[in-house]
Structure formats: C-alpha cells, structure tokens
Write a structure and sequence with these properties.
By secondary structure, the protein is α+β, with helices and mostly antiparallel strands. Helices cover 47% and strands 19% of the residues. It has 23 helices and 46 strands. The chain is flat. It starts with a strand and ends in a 7-residue tail after the last helix.
Length: 1473
C-alpha cells in the first residue's frame, strides 16, 4: 500500500488513519497486557461525482435473479473462473467506477475524519462506523477578478469550527463547517504553493512549508567536517545545479541553470564571497569538473558544449575556449599527472536511439592558457586537430565512465546490466569512430544505474548506485575491499560523492532523501593508507607555490559588485546590420550577452571589416543584374501563356534553385515511398484476406442465379477440417461404436439369462417373432425421436447421436457437440454436391444457348431483323475468382507506354497500311468482288441477297421495244417471280427455325429455373437444419459453461471454507490464549487486592503496642490521601486549542504517580506527626502508608488493565462467533449449490420440432405452471397406446371367438339332442327290425340309398370338429405364453429397478456416513443435526416408498391371478363325446 499520510487520533491513541491516493483505512490498536493487535478497516469512498455506489456482496450475493430456464445465476467471480482469494474482490471492467482520490486528512475532537479530495470534495468520516458524508459547499457570489480556481487541498489542519486548507495557488483557506455544509474564506496569502502546515501544541503558532527549496535560492554553505556544523552561507538567488572545489586554491565554482558559472572565494571561511561570474551560454550548466592539479575548469552544458576555463584566480578565470560534443553529457573525467605536462579529458554521452554510449577524448597542454589564441578560432572553438580529439563508441550503454591514470584504461558502469567493465584504448592513432570492446568484466553486485569516481592517486575506484551502497574497489582487480550503506534504496540511493585528496574523508549526497552523509574510516592504515598519503604529500608539495599565490590573490581580490537578488545587467555593444547589410550599426542594449555569443559577434565584425570593399562591388553587380532580370520579367509578362516562364525560372540563386529541386525530389521520393508502403500494406492486407477467405476454403463461396426470375442460390463456403478435428471425430466415433457393441452384448447376456430362467426350448415360430421384435426394438431405439432437427432428410446418419434426455455428463456433451458439428459438415457437403451438379447444369445450358445463338444470329442476319440476341453469362457472384483478377477495362488511369513500345506500334501500323495498298492493287480480287460478291459459288443462304439484273433495253420506252426484247422482258418477269417465291419460302423456313430455336432455349432455361427454385428450397431447408444443429450446439456449450461456473463456484466455496476454518483455528487459539492470560492476570489482581485488604486489616495489629486513641488517629491519617492540584490552563488557551485536555497515557500516569509520591512526602513530614507519638513509630507508619498507597495505585492499574483485557477477550470471542457464522453460511451455500448442481444436471434443455400451424381451443383453461410436470417421450405413449389397442383387439377377438364357440356348443348340443331323439327312433326301429330279425347294418344299408356318402359325411364332420377344437386350444395356449412372457419381462424390469434402488441406497448410506464424519470433524453441532434430520427424513420417505412398491407388487400379483382366473372362465368346457 502506497501511504501518503499517517496520523494518530489526538483523542485516542488506539486509532490511526492511513491514506493514499486511492484508499483510506482506519487502524485500531487493541491491547491485552503486553500484547498489541492491529485491526484495519477500509473506508468505502464515494464516486467521483460525490454519489454512493451500492455494492453487492461478492461472496454471498443475495439479490441475484433466478432464471428458471437457463439454470442458476452465479456471481461474476464464478463466471470468470476465479477460485482463489482474488474472487472475493473481483469486479469486471464495466463494473469499476472511478472513486474519489483522497489527498490529505485530519482528525477532529469527536474522533471523526475530514478528508480532502482531488476532485474538490470534502468528506467527513465517522471514526467508529466509518460512515462517509459528503459535505456540501456553500457558494458565495464574488467578483470575477477575485475568483480563484480551488480544486484540491494539498494539506489540511483542524481548527475550531472547521479546517485550514492550502492548495497550489499560494493561498491558505479557512473552511467553516456547519452540519453537513461548509463555506470557504481566505485566511492567508503566500507567494509560493504550500506543501505542509502544522499547528503548535498550544495552537498559538502555525508552521507553513512552501515548495521553495534551498537549491532554488542558490544557497551555498560551508561546513566543518569535524563537528558537521555550518560555518557560513551565501545566496546566489538563482537555481544552482552543480558545484566543484578547486584543488589549487581556496575557491569553488558553481554552475547555474541560466548558464553562468560563479567563482566563490572561501579564503575567509566565515564570509565567502563571489569573486567572478562567467556567463558562458544560455543553456544550463550540468557538469563542473576541475582536473587533479587545478589547472583547468571544464564546464559541460545541456546543449553539448564543454568550456575550458583557466582555474587560476590570478588570470581572472580566463575562458580559453570550447569544444562540441554530444548533447546528452553523462560525465566528464580528467587525468592530470605530476610527471606529465598535459591534461587528458574524456566526455561520456549517451546515444539512446542506438542503445550505445559515446566517448570523446582530447588533451589539453598545461601551457594552453599562454597560447590559447593558437588553439582556438575566432569564435572560441578549439581546433580538433590540435587538441587531438578522438571518438569512441561502445556497443552497450554506460551510466558512468572514468579515465584511468595508467595504461590508457577506461572504467565503465553498465546501465542495463550490473557489471563494471574496463576498456583498453588503442595505441595507434585513428580517424572516425573506434569501437571499444570490454577488456575485463566484473559483477558490481549493486542494482540500478551507478556512478564511478577515482581517488586522487588513481588506485581506488569508488562506485555508487541506486541501492544506496558505496563500494571502494581496487583499480586493477576491480574487487571491493571496503563498502558502506549510507542511504536507503527507497530514496533512490546516492546521487553524488566526493573524496578528499588524502582519502580519509568522504561525503555522500542522497538523491531523494535530502541528506548529506559524512563517512570516515574506522581503521585507516597499512599499505592502502601509505600509498594515498605519499601521493597526497607529493601533490601538496607540487601545488604549494601555486596555492600560496592564488590564495593571496583571492585575499586581495575585491568582491564582485553583482546584484545577487536579481539578474545582472551590463551594457554591451551589439552588432546589427540593416536590410542591405552595408554598414554596421552599434546599439546599446541593457542585456548581458553570453561569452560564446560575444565571440561570435566579434568574429562577424572582423569578417565584415575585412570584406567591406568586396561586398560593395558584389552589391553593385547584384543591383545591375536585378534590373536586367526585372526587364526580362516585364517582357515575360507580355508573352502568351504557352511561352511564359515560371517565376522560379528567374531566380539567380543557383543554390536556392538546387535546394528547391532537391526538396522537390525528396518530396517526390517521400510520396513515392509512402505510396509504395501504402500499396504494400494494402497488398499485405489483401493477401491476408485472400488467404483467410479464399485460399483456406476447401469449398469456395459461389452463387447461382436463375435465367428469368430473380432467384439466387448460394452454396456453403467450407474450410477443410484440421487433423486434430478429424482425430477427435474418429475418437468419438470409435467410442460410440464401442458403446453400441457393449450395449448389444449386455442385452444379449440379459436376454440369454432371462431365456434360461423362463424357457429352455423355443419353437421356430417364436424365434421368428422374437427376431422381428428385436428388429423393431433396434429400430425404435435409434435416436430419431427428439432429434430437434431435420438432418435425416439429407441422408445423414444420426444413429450415433445420444438422446437429448441422456446428456448428463460433461464428456457426453462434448462428444455430442463433435458429432453435431460432423452432421453440419455432412449436411453442407450434401447440399454443396447438389449445388455443384446444378452449376454444371447451368454451364451446359449456357454452352447450349451459345451454340444455338450462333444459328440465331445467322438467321437474324439473313432476315435483316433488328432483334437482339439474348446471351446469358456468368456474373461475378457466380464466378468469384474473377474478382481477384483486375481487368484492363477496370483501370481508369492511362497506361504508361515506353518509347520502344510506341515505336513498335508505329511499325505495325505502317505494315498494315502497306498490306492494304497491296490488296487494293489486286485487280483479280477486285473483279471477283464486283462481279460475284467475292464468292465463286452461290449458296442457298444467299438467295435473299440475290438480285436479277435488269436488261439494258428497259431503260428505253416500251414503244420502241422489239419482239425479242419483249420476250426477254417476259423471261425477266418470270425469273423475278420465281425468285420472289423462293425467297418467301426460304424466309418462312428461317422464321420457323428461329422460333423453334428460341422456344427450345426458353424451355430449357425455364426448366433450369424450376430446378434452381427447388434447389433454393433445399438451401433454405439445409440452412434451417444447420441453424437447428447450431442451436443445439449453443445449448450444449451453454450447459458446459454453466457446469464450469458451478464447479468454479464450488471450488471457491471450498477454498473459502478452508481459509475460514484456518481463520477459525487462529481465532480459537487467540481466544484460548486471551482467556488464559486473563485468568492469570485476574489471579494476580485478586492476590494484589487481597494483599491490599490484608494491609488494611492488619493495621491495628501492627500498632497494637501504642494507645488506642493514637491508633485511631493514625488510622484516620492512614486513610487520608493527598489532593493533587491539577494544572489549570488559561482561558485563552482553552478557547484556542480545539482538542482540549488530551486523554491520559502511560507517561501521564507515571507523572501523576510521581506527583502523588511528592505529595506523600509532604504528608510524611514530621510536622504532621500527632503529639506524644514516638518518631520511630511515625517512621514505621509513614512507610506502611506509603506501601498502602503504592499498592492502591497498583490495584487501580491492574483493574484498568484487567478491564482492557476483558474487552480484548470479548472482541476475540465476537470475531470467533463471526467466523463460525461465516463457516455455517458457507456450508449452507454449499448445500444449496449442490442441490442446484443436481437440479441442473437433471433438468436438461432439449430441442423439440413442432409442426407449424394453429390450434384453437374452446375453453382457454390451461395450466401454465409445470413445476411438477415431467416430459415423456411421445413414442413411449404411442407404443403404450398401440400395445393397449392390440391387446384390446386381441381380447375382443378372443371374446368373439369364445362367443362363436359357445354358439357352436349350443348348436352341437341341439344337434346332439336331435341325434339322441333320432337315435331313440332308430333304436325303436332297430328294435322293430330286430324283431323282424334284420341286422342294423343291413337295415342302414337297405334304408340309405347312398350308404357310403353318409359314412364319409359323418367322418368329415367329426374331423372338422376335432380340428376346430385343436385350433382353439392352440390359440389359448399361445395367448397364455405371450401373457407369461410379458409378465416375466415386467418382473425383470422390477428386479432391475429394485437393484438400482438398492445401489442408490448403499451410495446414500455411504454419503450419509461421509457427511456425518465431515460434520463431526467440523464441530458444528447445528449443521450436523440438520443434515442428520434431512437424511433421516429421506431414508424414511425411501422406506415408505419401498413399502408402497411392495404393496403394489402384491396387488399386481393378485390382480394377475384374478385376470388369469377370469380368462379361464371364458374358455369353453369341452365334454368328451
């Protein structure tokens, strides 16, 4: 958390507020004896407009809508798939609203908070409930010039009746707050923006801090290193950037933002003064570096110039010159050794675009100040060839680099990686840029960009970095031998470092913490100290004379009269020229001119004076030339527009013309490049679109149009299925086949077992019937019902699809989606095949129409008709590949023809003209064209164009014709008549042929249109099937997504439950520990209280030796306590201080106890001793009373602590109860979620095809609530109805048959009676015959005329009767067998159902035991009792249902017995004859 402000409640030290730009939190400190506990509560901030947002509970949302169709509605975190702690605070981007941004806060005496916001709102927060109130601002009318735009307070302090606030406008405002509104008044005006305000404890003084820092005022301080005390100060009143101290004198150089360098003398340490000021340039000074001997001062500016200044004050700090380097200067390093007479300078700059660094090195001789005019030009720029300037580059970026003293080495600190590298400079001279390679590389073990410094003797390499650690390394091995952490990395580490010449003192400056740290060695000695001290002594001896000279000069140098409070103004002469630049005009301006500009003006002045005569001559020539050009321009204006020249043609500035030409060429090249890049981008985009929409399509998108009606049929564009999709499809198909085979084997096993139990031998008829039934069952089990689509109309196999009522598991749904996608692919493929056939048919029809149009055009040409020939063509939508090819006629721009192409075309045209001339010269061809029309044979098609020439005499009058001429005229008329008759016959035949061809074209195209209309209907149906399958896929995908959301919600609740249980264990442990501490502390308190009572009771026993009246006096004194006078505050202070008397703390309690003991000393004085009392007894009494008072104070303190611990324990207990409620709530939510999950898995969304139509009902009384309804397959009802109908028909047939049998029985009985009567008659007759002595057979034989026929008839009747009885018996047996078989199947089904119920019962028992274990582990008695009760009710209901099913089974068996008994009654009772 990024905290901007933290403050304690002045009225309650147990409350503190932490605020950041986005949050405000109030922390409460709870204490139990020596244990402290911090509790944080966040404040719900309003929206940016000041309104409040009603947040819903993310973990347990109560206001979610209930969706009865698409399943349960879950929280957004579950929809997002979050299961961890982030789900508790998850909000989508659309649900995130910008809140107010707090800036500052302050406490009130009522423990409330005032918070200022960036948006200008002022909030009041209750410290206990954290309720936020937005205070209303009362606007007052004020003049426009007095209105200030107050936006957000930077700091707030509380005062009575409101707060004081400050903004960035330099004003302090008083907010007068009343109720829920406030009014703003001006309190104080300050020049600078206020950053912080604070009242003194007595509210008599107000501390105000502005943004004006010491660096802005240019404060330069002199410090003693011994005691780190400030000796003196000086103000430059300008922003100081860098500072450097001179090794050769007691002076320092300060670089400022305005481009000046101030030289300050510290000869008198207590009063430093500015001795010189050098205004170098208008760009800010970024680097100021002295060389090791103090000869030169190198100044680096932001514009990339390095100025070399003489460091000696005796030379008035002469500016020698400057050299140009890269703009972004990072560091300047110098090497000035005692044994050499040159100073090496290295400048490090960065190349951010290339990710590299550049090093520029040059050398300065020590005698440069004496010969500076030869080293620099007139503008002050040092000559590169004289100072030996070389350029180097590194392939990686450096943040710092220094030049080594020996071996021409460079040390660099890498900015991107934590390495320190050394580089070797080449010994040979080079030109251009030389690339340096790392010579040695060592890990710095410091993170962030760092800086490098060298000690005075060049053997120590000092590194500082952002981590705040200073390391001193050996320059040869680059290994660290000393380090110190001087600053924190949170303040971005160290900014700069300086080491003394003897190496004993180190100053380190922080970057953001504003601290200057002085480092000193703990142990400084040995070889390291001797080396630097020896070099330091040598350097002092070498510089002693120069230092004495320069310090003496500084002591005598007067102070520069520079107004440090404002910008310096000097009178300078400025060189300016008029428009003709003929003569120089000197003007006096009161403005300080930089040194570099002065040198430039002096150089220009010298050049003007040197070339003045030549300039005059050139000017005169220019004037004469301008007159000539003006005359030419006047003549050019008089010419025609074609002959006129442009104004640019008269420009004599060839360089300008060349520049304009180059610019135009560059512009043209830029436009060409832009057009090429634009075309390339368009081409790339076109290739992407073509690859995505055309090349990747296995079936390209096409359309077919009818010939005569506006009907268009499009195919289905299809991409080729990937290898992964095919593998997945193959896997699903294989799995479905395996499942089908397993199901088939299970059925065979079940049928075989049931067959063994029921019937061992089956007849052939039974086998045939069973095979037919198996076939019927197999057909009915195919998932053709409730398919939800018409995919079977396209011949697609849907046998592998699972029923929509059986898709419960995730894997089944995924497999179903894959199979549905395959069905969509097959449907589209079937239609595309039909489309391709229709496309080929249209190609054939167009080709046939073209073939017939050839003859039609010939006939129209022969008949000289003006009819247009209808020629159908494919359109672009039918041949979309033509859209990818640009035709020549689509290009509107003129084609650029090259010269050699033009020459070739001219040659071809010339050859054509020559050929035509040759053709004209052919007399034979011309004669053939004139005489016979260009043909040697007259065809029948030419009869319409034939003309019989008139005889020549027809030009004469009829009267002068001869007989021969008259005969020729008659022959002529006859030939003309015959020709006209032939012409009419041929014309009619052509017209008939034309009509026949047109009719055939019309019929064939119309037939194709009809076929295309049917194909269009097929396309609509295919699209309907595709949409139906896609709708099923969408429903399945939605169910999968909802299943994942339910799983995510369940995982989140389990994780949340785990966290809460862990929290519960922690709170239980805290309660246990707090209770134990409270018990122990209470025991101590009771012991102390008992001791106090014992001391009170044993008082008289201790003083039993003295008289009773003295004991009573002493007891009264024993009970007496001194009165502590409270320090009264003045009424004025009380009225000013808003917080009044602050509550007591530990320190105040100790002060009060000390004051009490001091008052006890007064009571123990000998003057307060009663008369006649022994002093020894008095001393013993005083000691006893003092012990009693101390014990009472301890009891009071213990009582307060005991109350505090009890409060702490009560809060821990409340927290534990709250966590327990959360756990119970999570359990309840888990149970509801599991019920929802089971309900969702069982409540499937299915797709049903309904017939289109309308059903009218007379009474619209339908039940619209189907919560207790179930969906049953239509085929099941139809099959059941068909079975019932079949059984009814069989029963009716059986009854009719029994009725017929009964009739037959009655008829046979009647016939039997008749025959008995006849028999009696015959017996009587036979008796008579016997009496007549005739036998019976003889009597029959004699009585019957056809005795054999009678015998045969009787035999036939008996056989027929026997056959009827056998057939009736077989039918009854078959009916009994079928009934027995059905009852057996029904019994098997019941056995299976009972087995499934027993399995479910076993699983439920396991689940009950698991739940019982979980509840026992949780320790939640209430939840376990609820679960046990619910499970017990479920078991009782299940047992009840089992009993009901058993009773129903018994009733069914009784009913079956009764049915069998009643059926047996209907059977005829056949009595044997």
């Amino acid at each position: 958390m990024d905290v901007n402000q933290m403050s304690f409640n002045p009225m309650n030290w147990r409350q503190l507020c932490l605020s950041s730009p986005s949050t405000v939190s109030v922390w409460t400190i709870e204490r139990s004896n020596q244990e402290h506990c911090f509790r944080a509560r966040s404040v719900k901030l309003p929206l940016e407009d000041g309104s409040f947002f009603n947040e819903t509970d993310v973990v347990f949302p109560q206001s979610l809508p209930k969706d009865l169709i698409y399943g349960p509605v879950l929280p957004l975190s579950s929809i997002a798939g979050l299961v961890g702690e982030e789900a508790e605070t998850f909000r989508p981007k659309d649900d995130l609203y910008p809140l107010l941004h707090p800036t500052m806060h302050c406490w009130t005496p009522t423990s409330d908070l005032y918070i200022g916001c960036e948006e200008g709102h002022l909030l009041m927060i209750n410290g206990n409930t954290l309720q936020v109130t937005v205070l209303n601002k009362i606007e007052e009318e004020s003049p426009l010039e007095d209105r200030r735009n107050f936006i957000s307070p930077v700091t707030l302090v509380y005062q009575k009746e409101g707060v004081l606030a400050s903004g960035i406008d330099g004003f302090v405002y008083s907010f007068i707050i009343k109720d829920r509104s406030y009014m703003i008044e001006d309190f104080l005006e300050i020049e600078r923006p206020v950053e912080h305000m604070a009242f003194s404890p007595n509210y008599t003084m107000l501390l105000i801090q502005t943004d004006k820092t010491l660096t802005h005022s240019g404060e330069i301080c002199v410090w003693w290193l011994e005691d780190c005390a400030c000796v003196s100060k000086i103000y430059l009143n300008t922003l100081a950037m860098v500072l450097a101290c001179c090794p050769s004198s007691l002076s320092a150089a300060v670089g400022t933002e305005d481009g000046s360098v101030y030289f300050i003398s510290v000869y008198d340490k207590e009063s430093p003064q500015v001795v010189h000021k050098a205004f170098l340039s208008e760009s800010s000074v970024q680097h100021v570096v002295y060389d090791q001997q103090g000869i030169f001062l190198l100044v680096g500016t932001s514009e990339g110039k390095v100025f070399i200044i003489n460091a000696n004050s005796s030379s008035s700090f002469q500016i020698i010159g400057f050299t140009e380097v890269a703009k972004d200067i990072l560091q300047i390093s110098t090497v000035s050794l005692l044994e050499t007479d040159i100073v090496k300078v290295m400048v490090l700059s960065s190349l951010p675009e290339a990710g590299r660094s550049r090093l520029e090195m040059f050398t300065l001789p020590t005698l440069l100040p004496q010969v500076s005019t030869t080293f620099a030009d007139e503008r002050g720029r040092l000559k590169d060839e004289i100072i030996h300037k070389y350029l180097y580059e590194l392939e990686h970026a450096l943040s710092s680099a220094v030049l080594g003293f020996q071996s021409n080495q460079i040390y660099g600190f890498c900015s991107q990686v934590p390495y320190i590298c050394s580089y070797l400079l080449p010994e040979e001279e080079h030109t251009g840029i030389y690339i340096l390679k790392p010579y040695k590389k060592v890990q710095s073990r410091q993170y962030g960009p760092g800086l490098l410094y060298l000690s005075s003797h060049g053997l120590w390499l000092i590194t500082i970095a952002k981590c705040g650690i200073l390391c001193i390394r050996d320059v040869y091995t680059l290994e660290t031998f000393a380090w110190c952490r001087s600053h924190s990395h949170q303040g971005h580490g160290i900014q700069s470092m300086r080491i003394s010449m003897d190496g004993q003192n180190i100053l380190v400056n922080g970057r953001d913490d504003g601290t200057l740290v002085y480092l000193k060695w703990k142990r400084f000695g040995g070889h390291l100290a001797s080396e630097i001290l020896d070099y330091y002594q040598k350097l002092l001896i070498s510089l002693s004379s120069a230092m004495d000279k320069e310090n003496h000069y500084l002591s005598t140098t007067p102070k520069v009269s520079v107004d440090l409070g404002s910008d310096s103004e000097h009178t300078k002469q400025k060189a300016s020229t008029d428009l003709s630049q003929d003569e120089l005009v000197l003007t006096d301006v009161k403005k300080e001119i930089p040194w570099i500009q002065q040198k430039s003006q002096e150089a220009i002045k010298k050049e003007v004076n040197l070339f003045s005569k030549k300039r005059k001559e050139i000017k005169q020539g220019i004037k004469s030339l301008s007159k000539t050009i003006l005359n030419m321009m006047e003549e050019n204006d008089k010419l025609e527009n074609i002959a006129k020249l442009d104004q640019q043609e008269f420009g004599l500035d060839l360089e300008e013309l060349e520049r304009l030409h180059d610019e135009s060429q560059e512009e043209v090249a830029k436009i060409i490049k832009d057009v090429e890049m634009h075309n390339l981008a368009k081409s790339y985009l076109a290739e992407l679109i073509k690859e995505e929409c055309w090349n990747s399509m296995a079936v390209k998108g096409q359309a077919l149009k009818c010939f005569h009606i506006p009907c268009v049929v499009e195919n289905f564009p299809m991409k080729a299925r990937t290898v992964e999709e095919l593998k997945e499809l193959e896997r699903v198909l294989q799995q479905k086949k395996i499942e089908a085979e397993c199901l088939k084997l299970r059925k065979e096993i079940v049928e075989a077992q049931s067959g063994v139990k029921l019937i061992k031998q089956r007849h052939e008829e039974d086998d045939e019937e069973e095979e037919e039934e198996d076939k019927t069952v197999k057909y009915s089990n195919l998932p053709n019902y409730l398919l939800g689509s018409l995919s079977t109309d396209f011949g697609v196999d849907t046998s592998l699809l699972s029923s929509q009522l059986e898709l419960h598991s995730r894997e089944e749904k995924i497999n179903q989606i894959i199979l549905l996608k395959d069905i969509i692919y097959k449907v589209k493929t079937v239609f595309n095949n039909e489309f391709d056939a229709a496309y080929k048919q249209k190609e054939f029809e167009i080709a046939r129409v073209k073939e017939r149009n050839v003859r039609i055009r010939e006939i129209i040409l022969d008949l000289e008709l003006e009819e247009a020939v209808w020629q159908p063509e494919f359109e672009d939508c039918e041949k979309p590949e033509r859209m990818l090819v640009v035709q020549d006629e689509e290009i509107t721009a003129h084609k650029h023809i090259k010269p050699w192409h033009k020459a070739k075309e001219l040659m071809v045209n010339h050859e054509k003209e020559h050929w035509l001339l040759i053709q004209d010269a052919s007399t034979r061809l011309r004669a053939l064209m004139d005489m016979m029309g260009g043909v040697l044979e007259v065809k029948k098609e030419d009869i319409l164009r034939m003309v019989i020439p008139q005889p020549a005499f027809m030009a004469k009058p009829d009267a002068v014709w001869t007989e021969e001429e008259r005969k020729q005229f008659k022959d002529y008329e006859k030939k003309v008549k015959e020709l006209n008759e032939e012409r009419d016959k041929y014309r009619k035949s052509l017209e008939a042929e034309l009509k026949k061809l047109q009719n055939s074209i019309q019929e064939s195209t119309q037939a194709f249109d009809e076929h295309l209309k049917r194909l269009f209907e097929r396309r609509v149906k295919a699209e309907m099937v595709t949409n139906q399958e896609e709708l099923k896929i969408s429903n399945l995908a939605f169910s999968l997504l909802l299943d994942e959301e339910l799983s995510s919600r369940e995982k989140f609740l389990n994780n949340y439950l785990t966290r809460k249980q862990h929290e519960k264990s922690q709170t239980s442990e805290a309660v246990r520990k707090s209770r134990e501490d409270l018990d122990v502390y209470k025991e101590h308190y009771d012991n102390l209280l008992a001791e106090d009572k014992v001391m009170d009771r044993s008082f008289k026993k201790e003083f039993s030796e003295i008289p009773g009246h003295q004991v009573d006096i002493l007891y009264k004194l024993f009970k007496r306590r001194p009165r502590i006078s409270k320090q009264k505050t003045h009424s004025e202070t009380t009225s000013v201080v808003p917080f009044g008397e602050l509550p007591g703390s530990g320190k105040l309690n100790k002060d009060a106890f000390a004051q009490l003991m001091k008052a006890m000393d007064e009571l123990d004085n000998i003057s307060n001793m009663p008369e006649g009392l022994d002093p020894l007894v008095w001393n013993h009494f005083c000691m006893t009373r003092r012990a009693k008072v101390e014990n009472e104070q301890k009891v009071k303190q213990k009582a307060a602590d005991l109350l505090e611990m009890a409060t702490f324990l009560q809060k821990r207990v409340e927290e534990e109860e709250k966590v327990q409620q959360e756990i119970e709530r999570v359990f309840h939510e888990l149970i509801l979620l599991q019920e929802e999950k089971v309900r969702f898995q069982l409540n499937l969304t299915i797709q049903i095809l309904l017939k289109q139509g309308q059903v009218e009902l007379e009474n619209f009384q339908l039940v619209l609530e189907y919560s207790d309804a179930i969906l049953i397959n239509k085929n099941i009802i139809e099959d059941l109805n068909s079975v019932i109908r079949t059984q009814g028909q069989k029963k009716v047939a059986s009854m009719m048959e029994s009725k017929d049998v009964h009739k037959r029985i009655l008829q046979i009985e009647w016939e039997h009676k008749k025959m008995e009567m006849e028999r009696e008659d015959l017996n009587q007759k036979a008796w008579d015959i016997q009496m007549l002595f005739f036998s019976r057979d003889r009597q029959k034989y004699l009585n019957e005329p056809n005795y054999e026929a009678l015998i045969s008839i009787q035999i036939g009747i008996m056989e027929q009767t026997i056959a009827v009885l056998d057939k009736t018996h077989k039918k009854n047996v078959e009916n009994c067998k079928k009934l027995l078989k059905k009852l057996g199947k029904f019994s098997n089904q019941k056995d299976i159902a009972n087995y499934a119920l027993s399995c479910n019962l076993r699983e439920e028992l396991v689940a009950v035991s698991e739940r019982k274990d979980i509840c026992n582990a949780m320790g939640s008695k209430l939840t376990c009792e609820k679960i046990v009760k619910e499970r017990y009710e479920n078991m009782m209901q299940q047992q009840k249902l089992t009993n009901i099913s058993k009773q129903q089974a018994e009733q069914i068996s009784i009913l079956q017995t009764e049915v069998e008994r009643l059926r047996m009654k209907t059977f005829p009772a056949l009595v044997p004859m």
